[in-house]
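Our consortium's second objective concerns turning raw sequence data into structural hypotheses that experimental partners can test. To show how far this objective has progressed, the report includes one record in full. It was chosen at random from the queue rather than selected for favorable results. The single chain below, 132 residues long, was entered without modification.
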Amino acid sequence: MADEDGVYRSLELAAETVGDIVPTVFERYYRDCPDAAELMSHMDQHMQGRMLDEVLRLVMTENYADDDVYLNYEVKNHRLSYGVQNSMYPALFAAVQGTVRDALGARWSEEFESAWQHRLQSLLAEIEARAA
C-alpha cells in the first residue's frame, strides 16, 4: 500500500517536512468550523493528538470492512455523547488535507489531490451511512 497510495505518500512527505501537523490541523479546523471549536473547547493538545491519530488511521485505510464495528460505535458515540453534527466531518477532513497540501507546497500533485478526494469521499460515505 505505502508505495502506491498517494494519501499515504503525501502524509509521509508532510511528516518529513513539517513534523507534527496536529496544531495546524486543529487551528484550521476551528477557524473553518466554529461550531466544532465550541464543541471541542475542552480538548487539550494531547486529546487532539489522539483524535487526529484515529482520523489519520482512517484516512490511510483503503477498505473499511475491518473497521465496521469501530465506525458504527464512533459515529453513534460522537453524535449522541458529544453532539457532533455530520457537517463537521467534511470540515475536519478538509483541514487535514489542506494542512498536508500546504506542507508539501510545490510537491503537491494531481495524483495526491485525486487520491485524497477519492479517499475522503469514501470515508465520508461510510460515516454518512452509519449516521443515517
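The partners drew two points from this record. The chain has a mean pLDDT of 92. The longest helix spans residues 110-131. Both points have been shared with the crystallography group to help prioritize constructs.
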